[in-house]
Design a protein that fits this description.
Length: 308
Amino acid sequence: MSTSIPVVHSEEVREALAEGRPVVALESNVITHGLKYPDNAETALKVEAAIRESGSVPATICVEQGAIRVGMSERDIERFATGDRIPKVSSRDLPVVLARGGQGATTVASSLVAAELAGIPFFASAGLGGVHRGAQETFDISSDLIQLTRSKVAVVCAGAKMILDLPLTMEYLETHCVPVVSYGSDDFPAFYCASSGVPSPHRIDDEALLAKVVDLHWAAGHPGGVVITAPPRDEDAVDHEVADAAIREALVRAERDGVSGQGLTKYLMHAVDRTTNGRTAQANAAVLISTAEVGGRIAAAHAALRAA
Ligand code: PSU
Ligand code: MN
């Protein structure tokens, strides 16, 4: 007997997909490991509201009782936001957590696996994981990037997290044939900041054209995704020098404390939040909402394109 992955859609998401209405998938690791309570729960609900206002249906993803759940309820989100022992589940952890019948919060990488299995072609997040600074020595490259080469899901985000080496992250995406197209700016954004200083290979400000890019990439036979960036809004962005100084300090602290591996991203993000007195956490929450809104609009344009 062949094994299939248990995927449980919420009723709202199942109906939307059956009717060809646009759906945007979302990760849950940002709820459990990104923002702190109650900002995590409040932001997750605002992200869902922004997607609804843009004409799409949100589908926040998690693992519970050995199944991938696609579409968390408000109560599920509150449970995850307050639970302190919910593990981070990336792609490679997924079969282990599912086999054990466990629970987990999905990263970008495992959410892409889940979105493709669930039949959702769009995913939104504030920032991708990527090539960590010093990866030449540590080999620390987020499996978010590898999964982007394997799952047919378009990712709308404010670039990659600024704690990373963004030029190397861009090189990785180029080497692995992942299209990067920027919406609303000429440069690849840096999560907290509008620009990483790296120019984006393409800029398209038209949602319908972006939807066409996504389908043409897949029509060409590519097995992976497309990265569509949207910068943080001016009023949400953090000053580049302030963010950069806080990141450098966090990197020194991480090395001193011997932090590496799967806990590093969370450690660095929280250290930066403390140094900036919460200014970066605030930007993180705001950019989650603004990218979700853009993602919802592009997903809606994509659904209209497919229905035409
Ligand atoms: N910590 C945060 N915010 C996040 C993440 C961790 O403060 O958003 C996440 C995302 O879920 C992303 C993952 O997919 O970290 C990448 O982790 P890593 O670099 O270990 O692959
Ligand atoms: Mn890593």
